[in-house]
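Purpose: get a first structural picture of the assembly so the mutagenesis plan has something to point at.
Setup: two entries, given in the order below. No constraints added.
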Amino acid sequence: MSKVAIVGYGLTKFSKDDFKIESVLINATKNLFDSTSNLNQKDIDAVLVSTNNNSKYLSAILSEMMGIQPKIAHSVESLCNSGTNSIVAAYSYIVSGLAELVLISGAEKYDSPGQILEWDKLRGQFKHPIFWASIFSKSYKRKYSITDEDIALVSVKNHKQSKNNPNAFSQISVSVNDVLNSKKLTDDLRLLDCSRPCTGGASILLASENIYKKFTDDPIWITGIGQKTTSASFTKNLAFHTMESTKQAALSAFQMSKQNPNNIDVVEVHDAFSVCEPMALDSIGFTKLGEGMKMVKEVYLTENSKINPRGGLIGSGHPLGATGIAQTIEITQQLQSKAGKRQVDNANVGLIHNMSAAATSSTVLVLEN
Amino acid sequence: MSKVAIVGYGLTKFSKDDFKIESVLINATKNLFDSTSNLNQKDIDAVLVSTNNNSKYLSAILSEMMGIQPKIAHSVESLCNSGTNSIVAAYSYIVSGLAELVLISGAEKYDSPGQILEWDKLRGQFKHPIFWASIFSKSYKRKYSITDEDIALVSVKNHKQSKNNPNAFSQISVSVNDVLNSKKLTDDLRLLDCSRPCTGGASILLASENIYKKFTDDPIWITGIGQKTTSASFTKNLAFHTMESTKQAALSAFQMSKQNPNNIDVVEVHDAFSVCEPMALDSIGFTKLGEGMKMVKEVYLTENSKINPRGGLIGSGHPLGATGIAQTIEITQQLQSKAGKRQVDNANVGLIHNMSAAATSSTVLVLEN
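Result (structure tokens, whole complex):
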């Protein structure tokens, strides 16, 4: 069975622009074509689109606009981890032999319908993600004696790091006080604790072992895949201070890649809200449960950007269907030593954590150079 | 690499009922569970949903409602061939080793947003599929000297056959005159030439070679897969009297399965409109180009139901995301000799043709017992 390499990528700036979804898909994909050697439309066997947008047939539309006539073409949707789901689908098409080269494009508009959890309103009208994030925050703080000041550091760090990411939505520095004094949304959540829905696109190109050399001298390999969906409703979570689906996805990804948390040099975790970063770090197994915040602090104080180097979702913005792909591109660039000012030293093994709806579903990928 | 078997299935009645999309998914899946031996929720590695519905996170919702906690869970959308696209995705998950057992559920409501081709309005406001179907009809009739009376026979045959299908939307007989005298929608299309959008669901269970025996003594194997997307806009078609994407998909499926049209005992073709049936038959290669209508007539006169035994889309109804899965279930039942009054003699090799938007995208599957 073929190994699967990442051989190209393209991003748009993440913004509040009111572009049409088709334009976002096309702009990210044009950037991929511009930066990938020897890429011919005829070589592309499959075109997958990752989005929560309501438009139909977007993979065929993107294909037509780009001059591609693929064998396989469809959209993939699983809310906020649509992006990594589409990467896993592409991986399977290559390993199963149905495709050699797969283009994936993720895109979202700032007003995506995926931001409202229509089915998850056991708590009356509270169907916006900030309500599960509030419960996570309260629960994590109480369980592990963590303060609002502690958690605010996630936003400070990620805003700082996003200033080195020209595609990031945020280009400002914020202090702990700025976070604590930003608009109070709930008892446990301020505006600067939240990632921002935005317009953005991310395209990535996956190739089989047979053909990757045509496109790059520096392939990045997908060596570990783990996924788990525990429920759709956040109230079905067994606990609100830990991410069960993330734990299980990480175990699978480590098992498949024969790696472990100690070997991971750089990581993208899904900080949809600030509390999610320490929770994800300890659920993945980088630290004991409850010690994720300690890890964030240590990394921040040593000026190491190994956690969410592009600024995470909080700094970069969160265009839902593009996020998992943008995370994967960041780790790819890090492992290729092409991350510019964001570059982490000696990055050889990286990990992506992408999740949906209060971690009711998680994907974990391990990449290696 | 594992072979992939169909080991279970469940359908709902196709109707104009205003059920919620979640209910349709669940009802089809409950029917699958009720009719499949030894099926335990814990065994299911992936849950895919095929639909054009705008609701998000449906694979997680279906999983939660059915008590499944899958590794892989996402929706697949490619308009009217979403169903077979999701089957191909499931096939890949199994062959690539990421899954052993995959549940797929397709569902649609009668008012699906997939019925309007928003992007394909070069002809002003004419963005409903009846407009491409009119052009196909006019072009095919002119090119091959075929009459309205000829084409009406497709509808007569498929309405007749759907009377043996308890899940079909239509349970009435129609004559050639009934078709010709039904409401005129365009110069070349009457109401009874059209499949009806409806509410319906179809679930199917795919298993690896390692585990299929747990669920069935009568596995049906997916031996051929072909897919092609030539464009998104029907005006990009090179010709309107033939289906280019279908030709290419059929070639790939025959090559992979080492079968050819002469070996196919029973076939489901995508008769979204009556002209599509003969066009598909000759594009797949069952006859010379332009002779598909002759084949329909011959089969009809010999009272053989080998073409669209369940009544096709015209007789059964067309719940977009469910259609490709319902077609695949029909061929599975035929190859298992479990099709009741619809049973075709000596059915060992079957073919499914499922397409989108004026055959701008086609999937062809070959199944064998």
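Chain A is about 35% helix and 20% strand.
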